[in-house]
Amino acid sequence: MRAVHLTARSFRNLADLDLELPTGGAVFLGANAHGKTSLLECLDYPVLFRSFRAATDQEVGRWGGVGFRMCLAAEIGGSARRFEIEMSQAARRKQIRVDGVEVPKLNDAVGQWVTVTFLPTDLRLIQGGASERRRYLDRALSLADPGYLRSLWRYRATLAQRNAALRARRGSVARAFDGTLAEAGAGVVVRRERWVAAIQESFSAECDALGESGPVTLAYRGAAELSDPAAWPAALDLAAGQELARGATLVGPHRDDLRLEREGRALRDYGSTGQQRTAAVALRLCERATLRTARGAEPVLLLDDVFAELDGERQDRLASRLAAAPAGQVFVTAPRRDELPRHLSLEQFELCEGLVRAVRIAA
Fold it and tell me: Do 301 and 34 touch, CB atoms closer than 8 A?
């Protein structure tokens, strides 16, 4: 894998960038609010062509600006690739070009550049609501399985139309979408269930390797029968009256969840912060393994102040787990060098007021 070349204009609080990053990755050091997370956000943006902070594109551009532009060039699968994005605030339009050719449909470009991102806010994966865990599932599986992405997008589009009809109290119109909803929804459910079943043991093993003493388990929580399109009509019939009253679809994978437990008790309610953070990191490691298997290459790792959130033992354990993977690129942020594991060996840069210093600091 060759070096990543990143250019950006008016992206968040970053100064204009024209940056060549080392083959193995880099460490970005700097105080809070000086652009470290924005730099990782920029590296991640060409994965799904949206911010991992769940911000709108209007928020990604520099405050008071006219939009943003960025370009990421890298080697993927032995080929040189180039991703260019230009967002205009005035036109509220985003233009995407891959290898110099404009992409008319977003799903034609999604997932060609792949990262796994560890964030301090990953604690929400455990403490937050079901939507956080569904978002995690949708990202991991969309990048690993094009069939999942097609089913998910079709399901979401159909769900939006069906919900609009329900809000308008047009029940017969809503039911006209049932067949498409069932077909796409079953595709989502069956792939989620299959993936969770496949990684359950790995998830528990990752928690153990990261220092968790008790058994931590993972399961999919939803109506298992909805993996079969033939089961949907009865479920939708049963919910029809309540759906019309509430103006929303009450059946389907948009209501499902992941269940994480330690010794049979919900980790969200009974786990300590340290146990919850360990489980969140383990989920990201499972995501990384899934993408590696699906794509035959190591995904790029982005770690935003993650080590600062762990105690010394868990820092060393996580660094060891990352080092055990096949060679790949790792980009890490930290406020200070002393917050990094001792044996993390990467070239280092400094950020100050959005500017990445050209001088590389010896590791």
Answer: no
The rounded distance, in Å, linking the Cα atoms of 245 and 264 is 36
Q: What are the tens digits of pLDDT across the range 55-78? A: 788 889 988 788 999 999 998 878
The CATH class that applies to domain 133-276 reads mainly alpha
- Strand-pair category, 93-98 with 101-102: antiparallel
User: Taking Cα atoms as reference points, which of 247, 198, 264, 256 lies closest to residue 227?
Assistant: 256
- The two beta strands, 17-21 and 4-9, are antiparallel
* CA nearest neighbour of 40 among 99, 120, 148: 120
Amino acid (1-letter code) at residue 123: L
Q: 125 by DSSP, 3-state: which? A: helix
For residue 6, give every residue at least 6 positions away whose Cβ sits within 8 Å of its Cβ, in sequence order, or none. 17, 19, 21, 42, 43, 70, 71, 72, 73
Read off the pLDDT of residues 273-327 as tens digits, 9 standing for 90 and up: 889 999 999 999 999 999 999 988 889 999 999 887 778 888 888 888 877 766 6
334, two tokens: 């930290």
In sequence order, the β-bridge partners of residue 363 are none
Q: What is the pTM of this model?
A: 0.91
